[in-house]
Amino acid sequence: MFAYYFKLGVRSLRRNPVLTALMIITLAVGVAASVSTLTILHMMSNDPIPQKSARLFVPLIDPDPLEGYTPGQRQDDIQITYQDAINILKGAPGVRRTALYGVAGSVEPPRREIPPFSMGGLAPTRDFFAMFDVPFAYGQAWTEADEARGADVVVLSRPMAEKLFGDVNPVGKRLNLMGFPYTVVGVTEKWRMLPRVYLLQGGSPYSTGEEFFIPLATAVRHEAQHNGGMSCSQNLGPGFAARLASDCTWVTAWVETASSSDRSELQSWLDNYANDQRKLGRLKRNAPNRLFDVTGWMEYTGVVGKDSKLQAWLAFGFLMLCLVNTVGLLLAKFSVRASEIGVRRALGASRSEIFRQFLIETVVVGLVGGVLGLLLAFGALQLIALSGRSMANLARMDWEMLALTFVISVSAAILAGLLPTWRACQVTPAIQLKSQ
Questions:
Q1: Per-domain residue ranges for the chain?
Q2: For residues 231 and 79, what is the distance between their CA atoms, to the nearest angstrom?
Q3: Helices and strands (DSSP H and E) totals, the chain
Q4: How far is CA 66 from CA 165, 243, 269, 279, 281, in A?
Q5: Tell me, what's the pLDDT at 427?
Q6: How many CB atoms lie within 10 A of CB 421?
Q7: Residue 434 pLDDT grade (very low, low, confident, very high; cuts 50, 70, 90)
Q8: For residue 36, what pLDDT is reported?
Q9: How far apart are CA 47 and CA 194, in angstroms?
């Protein structure tokens, strides 16, 4: 019977074409508005590395002075000092550790037809690539020996490598970067982590990503200025060495453990380290040492803003308004079929059969509205993508959202059709037959 009622539902689309078109368009607009907004929110709050997000931790240590501090006060800074980052690299338990900061500089392309230009990058330690599962198209990360001596080596992103050298393997070639000659040791495959949780200072967390990577030790040796925020509670002395020795926060550290259960061990090490630093006269606030996994870090730093969540709620509110209008249109459509319902009831059709027939008709409306809503959602996402590169990275619908579009549309149609369908079941056959 389902197939029969489904065919009737498809044929019913031809009845009252104006009402049918209004229902489908109303439902499609509501679905498109809610799905496009939900897609953006889904991409913004998406776990960027689900296979190991529970094993990646970022520590926060408060180095600020005691003056003006209230116990329990939230630490707004999301970076740590250079000396704390280096000590974490040397001693923190875990399978991998990295410290990093954003850098930027000019490059002189080896191809003469391209003028010098600026590009943004990252200065991490070599564990960064394995920690965040960065794929390589050519070569590999720099060696431990390169890192130890701060060698002038660079890993390029694939788009940047193709821009500088063309579609060839550039490993071993040299380029002038930030005023120094660097040797290319690797090229990352097209890779994009959204959001960029590994570095939330400097730029949008939804930007395309880094164009080059150099060792942290190399960046420090060349005194490469950081591309991002820095917080200082004291007067910073002159020179780069003063920054390294200061309690200014401008570096991010990450630790990867073998399992999520190793978090307590890492937390204990962090607390013991802070106690040792207090004996040296540092960390006078005695503030709690925080440790976040990836999802906790996204929540703490407010990667998904309250405005985005509010927009999603408003979009679903608009969908509910569309449902109310759809209910009215369905009532109007089903009311003109009262005589048909009376004849079917007189011929022996039960109320449950009438209910199933008309409910399946609303499902057909929901499917058609879902297809149209999906097309409108794609169009809305394309318009959103035009607002900037970061939004272009977010305005992409994956298979989950594609399936959710049809679930929302069919569910909305069923919800809207419950009252009209129930009203259709209440038709009294005798009254309808007398009126004929």
A1: 2-45+305-434, 56-301
A2: 8
A3: 16, 11
A4: 53, 20, 23, 15, 12
A5: 53
A6: 22
A7: very low
A8: 79
A9: 8
